[in-house]
Amino acid sequence: MKSKIKMVVFDMAGTTVNEDNVVYKTLRKAINEAGVDVDLDQVLAEGAGMEKKQAIRSVLKSYANMEDEALTEQIYANFITDLAAAYSTADIQPQNGALALFSALKERGILTVLNTGYDGVTARSIIKKIRWHEGVDFDALVTDSDVSRNRPNPDMIYLAMNKFGISDSTAVVKVGDSAIDIGEGKNAGCGLTIGITTGAHTMEQLLVAKPDHIINQLMDLLPIIDNFNS
């Protein structure tokens, strides 16, 4: 007998937060300034959803045939500095329907968790800017800073499960806008993995990761969960 859904783990940027790819635009800028010519689509294709040092490594390897840890650290340091400046002026908003969906899930007794390939400082700065509060608007935040292994490893999902005493991963849904989000959910053994087309990856890129469903807006998730739990 399948478990009913008890928790949904949402990615942040591109999934529950609309920040117009400011992170990846800033990442591209830092990589370009280090002398590596890549465009935004290449950065998104290779690095979306990843912990950001790993995203830099992946972009350098794929598009410059380069493995240089010193350069990676330099790019990352510049990226973090530039990102703080970018966030001070960026128009960052919740994705359409995010809070309404969180509320509807709460009414169903389902927990909402945000997880992200961002470090904790960056993630919390986003949440502060959109005026969400952990424990009020959503139940928990898990970031790259909280685990030793990053996406597509399942560690962030397992940490969220442990926090709320959930032992069966089939009672968890993972929702994200990148293929690596889907991979994370599959590696955790989630009952459902859901791609969403509001962020980094296109429908075609998400399909490669073979999610159980692909949605075009957050509220499309509710009937999927209701059907699963019925």
Automatic annotation (TrEMBL):
InterPro entries in the cross-refs: HAD-like_hydrolase_sf (IPR050155), HAD-like_sf (IPR036412), HAD_2 (IPR041492), HAD_sf (IPR023214), PGP-like_dom2 (IPR023198), PhnX-like (IPR022468)
SUPFAM superfamilies listed in its UniProt record: HAD-like
One of the protein's GO biological processes: DNA repair
Pfam families (alphabetical): HAD_2
One annotated Gene Ontology cellular component of this protein: cytosol
Keywords: Hydrolase
MF terms (GO), sorted A to Z: phosphoglycolate phosphatase activity
PANTHER family given in the database record: PHOSPHOGLYCOLATE PHOSPHATASE, PHOSPHONOACETALDEHYDE HYDROLASE
Protein name as it appears in the record: Phosphonatase-like hydrolase
